[in-house]
C-alpha cells in the first residue's frame, strides 16, 4: 500500500528525515512513536503531500507521489493538530464543502450521518466557532473521513480529548479498519497505540530505529521497547 | 471539468462565508465611502476643476478597497490551517487560485456597484460618456488588478506581516493597469471624441490581463507549494 | 573520532581547492575592472568632445547610461536565474538571482540620482516624468519588493521559491510598464524633451559614442566582478551556517 524508500527531508541545513525506508501493507494500523523533534509529523506531512521530500521515493497504491498526486490525495484522509474547519460554518456546511471538493455522492446525507456518528447531531447547524476543543476534534475526525479514505493519516489524534471522544475516535479507526483502510498514527499516547494498533514504529533522529508487531494490546511490551531505544541516546 | 468545479465550490464557499459574516464587504464599502469623503475635503466638490480628478478618484477607491479584500482572502485560510485542508484535497493549486480570484472579483464588483454611483452623486458628476465603455473599462481594470492581486496575496500570505507586504508588491506591478484604466476612464467620462485612444488603452489593459492571468496560472503551483 | 577528523579534512581540502580557483577569478576580474575603469575615465574626460551647452555636467551622462544598462542587465540575470532555480532547485541559482538583484538596486539608485543632475543641466528641472526615468523608478520599487520577500522569515527554500516567482513576474512587467508609460506620455503631452543627445543634435558625436561604449564595457566587467564577489560572500555565509549546524549536532550527540 505505502512504499517509502530512502526518504530524506532537509530544511535549512538541518536534516529532519535521514533515509526512511518503510513499507506498510493494506489494512495495517501503524503507530509512529518517538521523542519530540524526531521527524514523526514531518513524515506524516510528506505522506499527506504537504511537504515535498528532498530526496527519496514514495509509492502509494503503486502510484508515484510526485506524478499522480491528485489520484493519491483522493485516497488520503489527513487529520493534523488543527481542525481544518471553517469557523463560521456549521459542522454540516463544513462537511458538505469538503465532501463536494472530494466529489462525494449524496454528500448531505453522508455528512449528517457522520455528524450523528460522532455524537453531535444536536449541533448540526451551529457554527463551529462556539464549539469546545473536544467537539471540534470530533468534527475534524468526521471531516477527515468524509470521502471514505483508504489511508488515514492522524497526527496525535488523542491529544486533548475526553474519554468519550477517545472511544468515538477509536471506534471510527476500528470501523475504518474493518472496511480495509490503512491507518498511520503519530502519537505520544502509548496506551491508545497499544489499544488499536497492530504495528509500532519508533522514530528517532529522522530514522526508523525499531519496527515491530504487537498482539493482545500489550502495553508493557511497547513501553519496554520504547525505553530500550531511548536509553541508548542519553 | 474538475478545475472549474472545485474553483466554483471554493468561490461559493468564500462568498457564502462572506454572506454570513459580512465582515470584508462592509469594511470595503465603508472604507470606499470614507475615501470619497476625504477626497471631498481635498478637492472642493463645488469647484468645476474637480471633475478632472474624478477618474483618478474612482481608481483610488477601487485599489484601496480592493487591497483590503485581497489581504483577507488568504489570511482567512490560516485560521485552523484550512489552507492545509485545501492543499491535501484532490485539486490543482491553480484551482485554489481560480476560486479565490472569482470570490475576490465578485466582491470587488459589488464594492464598485455601490461606491461609484455614490461618488458621482456626492460630487454631482453628470455622466455623459458611454456607459457601456465605462463598465467595460471598470470590468477589465478590476479583472487585472484582482488577478495579479490574488496571486500576490497568496505569495504575501507566507509572511507574518503580509498586510504591509502586499501593497508594496502589488502597486509597482500593477502600474500599467492603473495608467491604462485611469487614462481610458478619463477619456470616456470627459472627452468622448478621443474614443479611439481610449480603445487603445483598453487593448493595452486587456493584453496585460491576459498575460498576467496566464503567468499567474502557471506560477501559482510554486507559490502554494509547501 | 579519528574517522570523523579524517572526513572533516577531506571536506576542507575539497573546498580549499575551489576557493583558490574562485579567488583567482575574482582577482582577474578586479584587475580588469580597475583597468577598464581607468580607460573609460580617460575616454570620458579627455577623449570625448565636450558638449556645447552643458559642458562638464554632460560627462555624467556616461555614468548614467552605463548604470542604467548595468541595472537592466542585473535584473535580467535575476530573471534568468529565477527561472533556472524553479526548474533545477539548486541553491546556487538562487544566490546568483539574489546578488544580481541587489547589485541592480544599487545601480538603479545611481541612475535615479544621476538622472536628476543630468536633467537639471539639460532641461533645467530636477525631475522629468519621462518614460525611462519613471520605468526605472518603478523598477526600483519592484526590486525593493523583491528584497522584502527575501527578508521574510522561514526556511531558505521557501523564500527562494517565492522570490523567484516574484523575480519572474517583476521582470515580465518591465516592458509593459515602459510601454504604458511611454504611451501615456506621448499621447497626452507634446514631446518637449528629446530622449537624450541622440535626438537633440541629430545624433551623438562619434567620440562620445566611443566613450559611451567603453564605459558600458567597463561597467559590465564591474558587474561581473561584483556578482562574483557577492556570490562568494553569500556562499561563505551559507557555509558558516552549515558548520554551525554541524557543530550544534555534534554537541547534541
Automatic annotation (TrEMBL), chain A:
This protein's UniProt keywords = ATP-binding, Nucleotide-binding, Transport
Does Hydrolase count among this protein's keywords?
no
* PROSITE patterns assigned: ABC_TRANSPORTER_2
Pfam families named among the record's database cross-references:
ABC_tran
> Residues in domain ABC transporter?
2-230
- For the keyword Acyltransferase, the answer is no
Judging by the UniProt lineage, the source's domain of life is: Bacteria
Name the Gene3D superfamilies for this protein: P-loop containing nucleotide triphosphate hydrolases
Q: Which GO terms describe its molecular function?
A: ATP binding
Task: Write down the InterPro entries for this protein, in alphabetical order.
Answer: AAA+_ATPase, ABC_transporter-like_ATP-bd, ABC_transporter_ATP-binding, P-loop_NTPase
PANTHER family referenced in this protein's UniProt entry, alphabetically: ABC TRANSPORTER ATP-BINDING PROTEIN, ABC TRANSPORTER ATP-BINDING PROTEIN NATA
Which family does the similarity line name?
A: Belongs to the ABC transporter superfamily.
Record protein name field:
ABC transporter ATP-binding protein NatA
According to its UniProt entry, this protein's organism is Neobacillus rhizosphaerae
From TrEMBL, chain B:
Query: Where exactly are the transmembrane stretches of this chain?
Result: 24-43, 49-70, 101-125, 131-156, 168-189, 201-224
Q: Name one Pfam family in it.
A: CcmB
Q: Which residues form the signal peptide?
A: none
Q: Locate the coiled-coil region(s) and give their ranges.
A: none
Q: Which UniProt keywords apply?
A: Cell inner membrane, Cell membrane, Cytochrome c-type biogenesis, Membrane, Transmembrane, Transmembrane helix, Transport
The subcellular location is: Cell inner membrane
Q: How does it sit in the membrane?
A: Multi-pass membrane protein
Under InterPro entries, the record lists: Cyt_c_biogenesis_CcmB, Cyt_c_CcmB_bac
**What family is this protein classified in?**
Belongs to the CcmB/CycW/HelB family.
Its biological function? Required for the export of heme to the periplasm for the biogenesis of c-type cytochromes.
Identification of the protein by name: Heme exporter protein B
Per the UniProt record, the source organism is Neobacillus rhizosphaerae
UniProtKB/TrEMBL annotation, chain C:
Has the keyword Electron transport been applied to this entry?
no
Q: Where in the cell is it found?
A: Membrane
Alphabetical UniProt keywords:
Cytochrome c-type biogenesis, Membrane, Transmembrane, Transmembrane helix
Classification via Pfam families? Cytochrom_C_asm
**The organism sits in which domain of life?**
Bacteria
The UniProt entry, under InterPro entries, shows: Cyt_c_assembly, Cyt_c_biogenesis_CcmC, Cyt_c_biogenesis_CcsA/CcmC
- Its membrane topology: Multi-pass membrane protein
Parts of the chain that traverse the membrane: 28-49, 61-87, 99-119, 131-149, 161-184, 204-227
- What positions does the domain Cytochrome c assembly protein occupy? 26-189
Q: Which family does it belong to?
A: Belongs to the CcmC/CycZ/HelC family.
What name has this protein been given in UniProt? Heme exporter protein C
Amino acid at each position: 500500500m505505502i512504499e517509502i524508500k530512502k526518504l530524506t527531508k532537509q530544511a535549512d541545513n538541518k536534516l529532519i528525515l535521514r533515509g526512511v525506508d518503510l513499507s506498510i501493507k493494506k489494512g495495517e494500523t501503524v503507530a509512529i512513536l518517538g521523542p519530540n523533534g524526531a521527524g514523526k509529523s514531518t513524515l506524516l506531512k510528506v505522506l499527506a503531500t504537504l511537504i515535498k521530500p528532498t530526496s527519496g521515493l514514495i509509492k502509494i497504491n503503486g502510484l508515484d507521489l510526485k506524478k499522480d498526486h491528485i489520484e493519491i490525495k483522493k485516497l488520503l484522509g489527513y487529520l493534523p493538530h488543527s481542525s481544518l474547519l471553517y469557523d463560521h460554518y456549521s459542522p454540516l456546511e463544513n462537511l458538505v464543502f469538503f465532501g463536494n471538493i472530494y466529489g462525494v455522492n449524496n454528500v448531505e446525507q453522508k455528512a449528517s450521518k457522520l455528524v450523528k456518528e460522532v455524537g453531535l447531531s444536536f449541533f448540526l447547524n451551529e457554527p463551529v466557532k462556539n464549539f469546545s476543543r473536544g467537539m471540534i476534534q470530533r468534527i475534524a475526525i468526521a471531516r477527515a473521513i468524509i470521502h471514505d479514505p483508504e489511508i488515514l493519516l492522524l497526527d496525535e489524534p488523542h491529544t486533548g480529548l475526553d474519554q468519550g471522544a477517545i472511544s468515538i475516535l477509536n471506534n471510527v479507526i476500528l470501523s475504518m479498519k474493518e472496511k480495509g483502510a490503512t491507518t498511520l498514527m503519530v502519537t505520544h499516547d502509548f496506551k491508545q497505540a497499544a489499544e488499536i494498533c497492530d504495528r509500532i514504529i519508533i522514530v528517532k533522529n529522522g530514522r526508523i530505529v525499531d519496527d515491530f508487531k504487537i498482539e493482545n494490546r500489550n502495553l508493557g511490551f511497547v513501553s519496554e521497547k520504547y525505553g530500550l531505544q531511548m536509553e541508548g541516546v542519553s | 471539468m474538475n478545475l472549474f468545479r472545485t474553483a466554483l465550490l471554493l468561490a461559493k464557499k468564500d462568498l457564502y462565508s462572506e454572506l454570513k459574516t459580512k465582515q470584508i464587504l462592509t469594511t470595503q464599502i465603508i472604507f470606499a465611502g470614507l475615501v470619497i469623503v476625504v477626497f471631498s475635503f481635498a478637492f472642493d466638490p463645488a469647484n468645476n476643476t474637480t471633475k478632472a480628478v474624478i477618474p483618478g478618484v474612482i481608481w483610488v477607491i477601487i485599489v484601496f478597497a480592493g487591497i483590503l479584500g485581497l489581504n483577507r482572502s488568504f489570511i482567512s485560510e490560516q485560521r485552523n490551517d484550512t489552507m492545509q485542508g485545501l492543499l491535501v484535497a484532490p485539486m490543482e493549486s491553480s484551482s485554489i487560485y481560480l476560486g479565490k480570484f472569482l470570490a475576490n472579483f465578485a466582491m470587488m464588483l459589488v464594492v464598485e456597484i455601490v461606491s461609484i454611483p455614490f461618488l458621482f452623486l456626492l460630487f454631482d458628476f453628470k455622466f455623459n460618456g458611454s456607459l457601456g465603455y465605462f463598465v467595460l473599462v471598470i470590468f477589465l481594470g478590476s479583472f487585472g488588478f484582482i488577478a495579479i492581486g490574488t496571486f500576490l496575496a497568496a505569495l504575501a500570505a507566507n509572511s507574518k506581516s503580509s498586510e504591509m507586504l502586499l501593497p508594496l508588491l502589488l502597486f509597482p506591478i500593477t502600474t500599467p493597469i492603473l495608467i491604462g484604466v485611469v487614462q481610458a476612464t478619463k477619456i470616456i467620462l470627459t472627452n468622448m471624441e478621443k474614443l479611439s485612444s481610449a480603445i487603445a488603452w483598453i487593448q493595452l489593459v486587456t493584453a496585460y490581463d491576459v498575460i498576467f492571468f496566464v503567468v499567474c496560472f502557471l506560477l501559482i503551483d510554486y507559490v502554494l507549494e509547501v | 573520532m579519528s574517522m570523523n577528523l579524517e572526513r572533516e579534512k577531506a571536506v576542507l581540502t575539497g573546498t580549499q581547492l575551489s576557493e583558490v580557483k574562485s579567488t583567482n577569478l575574482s582577482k582577474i576580474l578586479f584587475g580588469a575592472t580597475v583597468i577598464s575603469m581607468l580607460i573609460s575615465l580617460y575616454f570620458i574626460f579627455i577623449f570625448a568632445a565636450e558638449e556645447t551647452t552643458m559642458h562638464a555636467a554632460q560627462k555624467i551622462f556616461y555614468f548614467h547610461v552605463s548604470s542604467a544598462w548595468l541595472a537592466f542587465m542585473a535584473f535580467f540575470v535575476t530573471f534568468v536565474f529565477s527561472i533556472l532555480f524553479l526548474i533545477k532547485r539548486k541553491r546556487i541559482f538562487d544566490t546568483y538571482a539574489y546578488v544580481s538583484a541587489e547589485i541592480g538596486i544599487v545601480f538603479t539608485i545611481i541612475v535615479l540620482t544621476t538622472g536628476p543632475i543630468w536633467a537639471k543641466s539639460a532641461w533645467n528641472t530636477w525631475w522629468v516624468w519621462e518614460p525611462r526615468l519613471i520605468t526605472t523608478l518603478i523598477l526600483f520599487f519592484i526590486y525593493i519588493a523583491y528584497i522584502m520577500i527575501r527578508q521574510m522569515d522561514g526556511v531558505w527554500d521557501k523564500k527562494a521559491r517565492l522570490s523567484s516567482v516574484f523575480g519572474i513576474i517583476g521582470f515580465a512587467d518591465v516592458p509593459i510598464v515602459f510601454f504604458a508609460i511611454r504611451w501615456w506620455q506621448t499621447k497626452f503631452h507634446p514631446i518637449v524633451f528629446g530622449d537624450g543627445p541622440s535626438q537633440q543634435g541629430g545624433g551623438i558625436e562619434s567620440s562620445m559614442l566611443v566613450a559611451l561604449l567603453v564605459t558600458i564595457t567597463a561597467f559590465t566587467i564591474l558587474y561581473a566582478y561584483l556578482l562574483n564577489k557577492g556570490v562568494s560572500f553569500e556562499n561563505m555565509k551559507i557555509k558558516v551556517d552549515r558548520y554551525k549546524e554541524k557543530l550544534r549536532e555534534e554537541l547534541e550527540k
